[in-house]
Amino acid sequence: MTRKRVTGLVMVGLAALGAAGLGTAAVSAGERGGSFADVPSGHRHGRWSALSAEDRAAFADARIAGLHAGLKLNPEQEKLWPPVETAMRDLFKQRAAQREARKEFKRERGRMVDDAPGALRAMADAATARGEALRKLADASTPLFATLDEGQKRRAMMLARPMRPFGGMHRHGPRPGGERD
Between the chain's N and C termini, which has fewer beta carbons within 10 Å? Predict the structure, then answer.
């Protein structure tokens, strides 16, 4: 596989991981007392788990719009954007549906230890669905990524970084070429 194709697939995967992992990062930050932690009044301002479906949809729209604006696509590339946006929106919708399914599972069956096999099956189903959604996003973004110049690819990686779990800070140490995260 060529380096450009691998880089493109990584970029798409990172964007999708961000869609799936940003909430996890927020909850983890709250557990550490970070910016998503409970405030003294007992309210959970800023906690992703406290956001409404409408709020989450607004953040998804903002992330998609930010990526689109940052890429500064030319007219030919703009024609390739709609399938990418659709795949990203489908991924966000699928994530929301999984969140609701987890809530329903918890309401119906209680804690995971009360029905571990059922919880494992649900997690496997969710992972399969995420994998299929990621594959659709990769397929939709391949034609667009093939047309991006180096500057657009660099911006895409930077814009996708906040979408990754923990804000993209999971990698430590030098990169090839001496760069650091």
Answer: N
CA 11 → CA 87, 98, 138, distances in Å?
14, 23, 9
The string of pLDDT tens digits covering residues 90-147 is 988 888 888 888 788 777 776 666 778 887 888 898 899 989 999 999 999 999 999 9
Residues 83 and 145: their CA atoms lie apart, in Å, by 12
* 171 contacts 181 by C-beta, under 8 angstroms: yes
What's the whole-model pTM score?
0.62
Single out the residue of 106, 126, 103, 124 nearest to residue 114, CA to CA. Answer: 106
> Which residues have a Cβ under 8 Å from the Cβ of 72 and sit 6 or more positions away?
152, 155
Q: Find tokens 């995967």 and name the residue.
A: 13
What is the sign, positive or negative, of the torsion defined by CA atoms of 142, 131, 70, 8? negative
Is 162:18 a contact under the CB 8 Å cutoff?
Answer: yes
